Amino acid sequence: MGDRCGSFLIFCSFIALFGSSTEAADIFLEWDVAFNWTIAPANTDQPVITVNGMFPGPLINATTNDNIFVNVFNNIDEPLLFTWNGIQQRLNSWQDGVSGTNCPIQPGNNWTYAFQVKDQIGSFFYFPSINFLKSAGGYGPLRVNNRIVIPVPFARPEGEFDLLIGDWYSYSYKEARGVVSRKTYLLRISNVGTSVSFNFRIQNHKMVLVETEGSYTSQMELDSLDVHVSQSYSVLVTADQQTSSYYVVATPTQMDTSGLPSLNGVAVLKYMSSDVDVRSRVFYWSSEVHQEKLFIGTCFLGAARPNPQGSFNVSNVNITQTFILHSSNAIINDSLRFTVNNVSYFTPEIPLKLADFFFNGSGVYILDEFPVETIRDNAVKGTFVATGVHKGWAEIVFRNDLDVMDSWHLDGFGFFVVGFGDGEWSHSSRESYNLFDPVVRSTVQVYPGGWAAVYAFLDNPGMWNLRSQRLQNWYLGQELYVRVFDPNPDPTKERPPPQNLIRCGIVSINSTVSALAPSPGGLA
Ligand SMILES: *[C@@H]1O[C@H](CO)[C@@H](O)[C@H](O)[C@H]1NC(C)=O
Ligand SMILES: *[C@@H]1O[C@H](CO)[C@@H](O)[C@H](O)[C@H]1NC(C)=O
Ligand SMILES: *[C@@H]1O[C@H](CO)[C@@H](O)[C@H](O)[C@H]1NC(C)=O
Ligand SMILES: *[C@@H]1O[C@H](CO)[C@@H](O)[C@H](O)[C@H]1NC(C)=O
Ligand SMILES: *[C@@H]1O[C@H](CO)[C@@H](O)[C@H](O)[C@H]1NC(C)=O
Ligand SMILES: *[C@@H]1O[C@H](CO)[C@@H](O)[C@H](O)[C@H]1NC(C)=O
Ligand SMILES: *[C@@H]1O[C@H](CO)[C@@H](O)[C@H](O)[C@H]1NC(C)=O
Ligand SMILES: *[C@@H]1O[C@H](CO)[C@@H](O)[C@H](O)[C@H]1NC(C)=O
Ligand SMILES: *[C@@H]1O[C@H](CO)[C@@H](O)[C@H](O)[C@H]1NC(C)=O
């Protein structure tokens, strides 16, 4: 192991190059976001949110450090926000596009996001973040390519495909057509669904895993790959079989779909000059294929942000704070809510970030009463915010008290995924951590009745959303915000609000100053 990683040490020195880019491009996009009734991705008619008439939405094809400007025209009949899953928005949570950071774009209005994909590479996606809209579409792929001067730890592929897997429609991929024999392709796979984990595989082909949400992994050859909700991977596939067409299949991992083939996502990998119509063949796949745990080491190839010592070796970092977060559900005031340590998030009318800026959060949220290591003995709905110690290392343990697969995501940072386990987490669970070469990613899966542990280096001041990626759980309260505060007012530090800041609630344009007086409490 030591040799494996040691030999890649040279790549660390390239990381410094990220910051000194002079080549960053500006990418300007105009998005018309609408409901289209005419596209029926499943067999039933349902409205689909399209971007510029497309479903899935258009690819954002960026390169490290590019500045992206997305002018979103909200032509649906509901308030809208987009978030950029896995894009870290360095020093700039103002562009994160979640309910705690931005007022929504009202129907008929437009708003321009402006953000930099700083120091990042990888496969990501965007989606509408509020009001359950993700279940109606509106998502699309977001690539951050390497700058040309940065070495990539694999030969340049012949082509790239973005594959989005969703859980309510069956033909979710683009067809990968005209693949040339013996050439290697990069597939960027994201699970954009709301609740279902998929096992992804390609008939007769092996895949080589190379990237998870922004960091290169040590390369593993796989027959299949589990992709949990909101996770992304890049894999290399070599067209090394006889010229033909092959099935690309995504099967739900925790359901028996043998009698329900329509629940499987199916696409076709078609070799150039192949005239085989794969759909006329019967292709058998087992619905039992299932990866128990994908626990991969990464080496410090110039991709994700390493720790401040310049490597992914976190065995000598000092943990500043520990969060032990139990996700569960509870009946609160006669309705089902999802909870974290028996707190179900209540979304205030004014985003936390604006509340912070205009009146120091007063009256909108309660700082530091969130029970970060214990479970409240009664379930409540409330707006609690946890402090994340700036430049500290946080250890976050996600414990899943429910019997369904979950996945968790923190905006603004990468997770160093150090451990998984069954049952309860205890202090002695730390002995099983992989601190040596943990993979770095932004969304970690948490197995039913088990736990996952991550480290995060909180070097990015802002108001950051920590959430279950299961849409229903998130929507019904399974989230919290972590406020990483840097008191240094240096303007090169955390960005001020953008000029085009949307105001709402008690700081809306038309409100009077007296409306800014603190209102009582943060409990709903
Ligand atoms: C979807 O809606 C957009 C915006 O109204 C429109 O431009 C586009 O043509 C529509 N596409 C389809 C396939 O109906
Ligand atoms: C994406 O951008 C890269 C780098 O500029 C370019 O090589 C590639 O052709 C682009 N891909 C697409 C699909 O636009
Ligand atoms: C709305 O779109 C117009 C026209 O493209 C643009 O000039 C304006 O800046 C946009 N408004 C916001 C708030 O981004
Ligand atoms: C990782 O850090 C630990 C503790 O400092 C050290 O013992 C170990 O050699 C390091 N591993 C590598 C590969 O640098
Ligand atoms: C961790 O804390 C110990 C004891 O305070 C200190 O000696 C060590 O330098 C710290 N390590 C890092 C990486 O900050
Ligand atoms: C802002 O709120 C924080 C935490 O509630 C408090 O410690 C601080 O003193 C407040 N600052 C001002 C200027 O009121
Ligand atoms: C969480 O709250 C519920 C209902 O309010 C309560 O019954 C339960 O005991 C609490 N959980 C823990 C671990 O205290
Ligand atoms: C239930 O609703 C009432 C009335 O809105 C509110 O006062 C109370 O705090 C709520 N209870 C919880 C546990 O949130
Ligand atoms: C503010 O007030 C003006 C005049 O009453 C009204 O036209 C406008 O729509 C209001 N704007 C908002 C954001 O409420």
UniProtKB/TrEMBL annotation:
GO terms for molecular function: copper ion binding; oxidoreductase activity. It comes from the Eukaryota. One of its GO terms (cellular component) is plasma membrane. SUPFAM superfamilies: Cupredoxins. Keywords: Signal. The keyword DNA repair does not apply. Residues 1-24 form the signal peptide. Residues 41-147, 179-271, 382-487 form the Plastocyanin-like domain. Belongs to the multicopper oxidase family. This is Monocopper oxidase-like protein SKU5. It comes from Asparagus officinalis (Garden asparagus).
